[in-house]
Amino acid sequence: MDDIRLATCATPVGAMTAGVPVLEARDLRLSFGKIQALSSVSLSVLNGEILSVIGPNGAGKSSLLNCLSNFYSPDSGRIFFFGQDITSMPAHRRAAVGIARTFQGIQTYGSMTVRENILSGFHVKMKTGLLDAFVYWPRVRREERFFADKAEEIIEFLELEELRHMRIGELGYGLRKRVDLGRALALDPKVLIMDEPMAGMNVEEKGDLARFVLDIKAARGIPIVLVEHDMEVVMDISDRVMVMEWGISIVTGTPETIRADPRVIAAYLGEEGNDETGLRPSR
Amino acid sequence: MRPVSGLPGSDPRTVGVRSIPALFRDQCGAHPDAVCMRAKWHGIWRPFTFREVWERVRFLSGGLAAIGLSRGDVLAIVSENVMEVYLLEYAALCLGATVTCMYPDVTAEEISYILGHSGAAVLVAEDQEQVDKALIAVDRLPGLRRVVYLDDRGLWDYKHPLLVDYDMLLATGEDASGAEPGRFETVLDTIRQDDLAVICYTSGTTGVPKGVMLTHRFLLDNAYRLLASFGIRSGADYLSYISPAWAAEQITGLALGLLTPMVINFPEKPEMVQHDLRELGPEFLLFTPRQWEMMASTVQAKMLDADRVRQRIYEWAIGTARSVATSNGNGMKRKRRSLRLAIAERLVFRAIRDNLGLKRATVVLSAGSGLSAEIFTLFHQFGVPLRNLYGSTEIGLVAAHWGGEFNPDTMGRLLLTDPTICPPLQVRVDGNGELLISGGSGFAGYFRDEDATDNVRTPEGEYRTGDAVRPTEDGQLIFLDRIKDLRTLSTGHSFPPQFIENHLRASPFIKDAIILGDERRQFVGALINIDAEIVGHFAEKRGLGFGTFTEMSQLPEVRERIAESIRKTNALLDSGSRIVRFATLPKELDPDDSELTRSRKLRRETIESRYKDIIEAIYDGAGECHTKVIVQYEDGKSIAMNAWVAINEIEAEHG
Q1: Per-residue pLDDT tens over the stretch A205-244
Q2: Which end of chain B is more exposed for a tag (fewer CB within 10 A), N or C?
Q3: More confident residue, B151 or B506
């Protein structure tokens, strides 16, 4: 069968910009009144990697993500996308150039079907407008077919075939998050930012989503910035991990180095050190 | 006893001297633009004509030759029913190679055994899961030259030197066919009807699997038996659902699909079969009894879920159908009944058939071990002309209800055979009551196993079915039980365990029943594997509290519900064969625990040794039993859980 695999239609990101980080933040500072949310945080996401950001509550993880997608403007510091300064680029433009983000909780339309929700993710890409849609020109039809095909590729990729005509409202949390991810993929992103995608999921749902995250990296070469509390998942799927505490990044490295780092153990486990976080190397 | 002979068929679509590839070439020449296969992809059914399919088969044949598959080699396949598998199988047959298919849920160990035993040169593995299983064994299989995968998902960074992508194979073959255009035909013309086409490993309810050899003649003869006996229409729709690891799908999908020809439709994925079935409304269906039982349970579960009004209408409709089926009243009464039936048909049955995808179904078959009379009756009440098909992997399809007749107590008459390739079927019963079969394309033997072959063949060359069967005066066959399965109690009383099990399984609450009792035991006992879905629903509706399957299985209300079903079955039996004591199993039976075969047949020895504590309790008069249950995970780890199991007694009925 003339299978159009997702891998083949992904834009070869970074082909001309090898070595340049896909997304880079330099020296970000952000404060709310007297509270210093971020004090000099830097991060760089390389092509084809999963970079996880971990840290206790209030460490500044969400603030960092919000700066990256410009829901917050940093007080100082710069953000680069493929080497280009995008510090002042507004949030919707960032989405259009390929910085996609999924949020905590559910951001799907409950009364629409799985397929419709994923199709809605394409709206920033559609050229024809509302008026065109009423007239239903041939080019509108062509466009619709094109995006319907793209949506089906995503449905196949995320293994949602048997649910394509189900209303989102009838689905469980894990599946809704998967549809949410499908919508982010509809943007054909160059980098994907995921804010606590596994929160509230059971073990099986976490396993499924972790597999899809790995597949997105492998099949489409999309780098992923992941904020996640489940240490087992983080240590399992990340290429690099950045640890934050009190608005600063204390260490960045591979899961193995993070596990062994005394500062991380101190920050996470306290002096006594119980192993519920999964940070300790398993014996 | 006098032998019973079948008849040659008169359908003109005979095979002649052709092999499967030669037949394909002829069909393609006769109607190149007719639809040959249809696959659902991205939610849309996409048709492929004979010309298109044949071209791909030729290319794949070139591709397979390029990676080292040649005449006499074995191509092994482990996959769900996808179109690529069928193309690859035809392609291999065109090279004069042999194909063996495995169920997609085989373990790594089973794959390794079958690859080793068949000496497979190339393996087709559907996806990452199957590739992973195969790669475990690959170092111990020096004969395996390549592993072709169909779906590259998750395999992007696999670097194993044996791996080949399906698309690459197709492209290689396309290039090769340009270089040597005549080679394909030359090889094809050398293939003979008695060449080995398929090795079908039987599920092996006892011991290791045996490879049954199926020749081109065997597959085409068996296809003709269905074609001629049921008069299947050219261009009919068939949904490929039963696994090609089973001989039945090789006969119906691969051979009958070509001979008729039918359109072979492939579902989008296994989870979508019920949905795709409804969209398609195929005319010809062949499912296993388990699949029919699952369908019946689906309807029953949906009705349990429905509101009170719908439930009443459904019950009224079923009651009407039942009374019509058993009626013999006068003219006026009969007229009123048929009017009521017409209303029931409009209100209920048509909708059920539509929802099950059986609206257009005219040839509807159940093959494998016996389907219970209750399920049969239920489908007949729905207006589905369900028929039993009797046969075995070794000897093929033997008997069925055809020509419009149906008697639920029998297996029907011998099927018509192709007069151009073999004599009619003939059966006789020997002194032990065992059915022996001759005629037709016969049994070619077990692959690399002379001893096993001799065990099932009489000196006269008849095939021993191992079945206790009684032919009636008018040539119908009545199945009693497997010869080895008729059991005798210590009292000397013989009883038919399978018959009892089938009747119990008809209860929606019972998924499997294991009947106990032999020459060491005084009475018949039973282990019941409850249907988790339906019992769970039942318990929920009644607000019964439970945490685990084990707890649910032992709820007093559940046990009482099971006892009720047993009493119903007991009523059909003579007093010595009735179930006296039973227990509900604290764990679902599972193929992963080797308690069932992959086709969901019971593995009695495993079950009886695993639950021996419970069995002892049934026979030593205890009221309860504390036992350990072992659960095995797919990665090979196993854990033991403590379970409390109640032993239940069915009060003796008098009169």
Answers
A1: 999 999 999 999 998 889 999 999 888 899 999 999 999 9
A2: C
A3: B151
Pick the residue of B153, B269, B275 with the most A CBs within 10 A to test the interface with A by mutation: B153
Question: Which of B138, B104, B201, B80 minimizes the C-alpha distance to B591?
Answer: B104
The percent of residues in chain B predicted with pLDDT above 70, rounded, is 95
Of A164, A215, A219, which is closest to B43 when you measure between CB atoms?
A: A164
For residue A175, what is the domain's CATH number? 3.40.50.300
pLDDT in tens, B238-268: 999 999 999 999 999 999 999 999 999 999 9
| Contact criterion met (CB < 8 Å) for B271 and A161 | yes
Which chain A positions have a beta carbon within 8 Å of B167's beta carbon? 3
Torsion angles phi and psi, residue B465, rounded to 5: -80, -25
Tell me how many degrees the CA angle B171-B175-B178 measures, rounded to the nearest 5. 140
First to last CA, chain B: 37
Q: Which residues of B touch A (CB under 8 A)?
A: 39, 41-43, 46, 83-84, 152-154, 156-157, 167, 268-269, 271-272, 275
Which residue in B14, B447, B432, B57 sits closest to B214, CA to CA?
Answer: B447
Distance CA B195, CA B187 (A): 13
- Residue A130 maps to a domain: yes
What is the Cα B335 distance to its own chain's centre? 40
Q: What is the ipTM of this complex?
A: 0.74
Supply B362's token pair: 């005219």
Nearest to B379 by CA among B314, B313, B299: B299
The answer to whether the CB atoms of B269 and A3 lie below 8 A apart is: no
Please, are residues B25 and B61 in contact by the beta-carbon 8 Å criterion?
A: no
b/e B233-259 (16+ beta carbons within 10 angstroms → b) = eeebbbbbbbbbbbbbbbbbbbbbbbb
How far, in whole angstroms, is CA A1 from its chain's centroid?
A: 32
For position A272, what pLDDT does the model report? Answer: 46
B426, B439 contact by CB (below 8 A)? yes
SS3 B63: helix
Helices A173-186 and A203-220 pack at an angle, to 10 degrees, of: 10
| DSSP H or E stretch at residue B304 | helix B289-305
| Nearest partner of B72 among B122, B108, B133, B107, judged by Cα | B122
CA distance B498 to B444: 29
Long-range residue pairs from B563-572, CB within 8 A, at least 24 positions apart, any chain: B563/B648, B563/B650, B565/B504, B565/B507, B565/B509, B565/B510, B566/B504, B566/B526, B566/B650, B567/B650, B567/B653, B568/B503, B568/B507, B569/B500, B569/B503, B569/B504, B570/B650, B570/B653, B571/B653, B572/B503
Written as one letter, the residue type at B205 is T
**Nearest of B22, B27, B69 to residue B50 by alpha carbon:** B27
Question: What is the CA angle B422-B426-B427, rounded to 5?
Answer: 150
Do the Cβ atoms of B453 and B459 come closer than 8 Å?
Answer: no
Does residue A205 contact residue A179 with C-beta atoms inside 8 Å?
no
Where in the sequence is the domain holding A90, given as residue range(s)?
A: 20-269
Q: Could you tell me the strand order of the sheet in which A23-32 lies?
A: A35-45, A23-32, A76-81, A84-85
Asked whether the whole model's pTM tops 0.90, one would answer no
Around B217, how many Cα atoms within 13 Å sit in the side-chain half-sphere? 18
Question: Based on the structure, what is the number of domains in chain A?
Answer: 1
Contact B152 A161 (CB under 8 A): no
d(CA B316, CA B340): 10
User: What is the pLDDT confidence band of residue B329, given thresholds at 50, 70 and 90?
Assistant: low
Cβ of residue A116 closer than 8 Å to a chain B Cβ: no
For the purposes of burial, counting CB atoms within 10 Å of the CB of A80, is it exposed (0-12), middle (13-18) or buried (19 or more)?
middle
> Which domains does chain B possess?
19-191 (3.40.50.12780), 486-649 (3.30.300.30)
Question: B168 CB contacts (<8 Å, ≥6 apart)?
Answer: B63
**How many CB atoms are located within 10 Å of the residue A255 CB?**
19
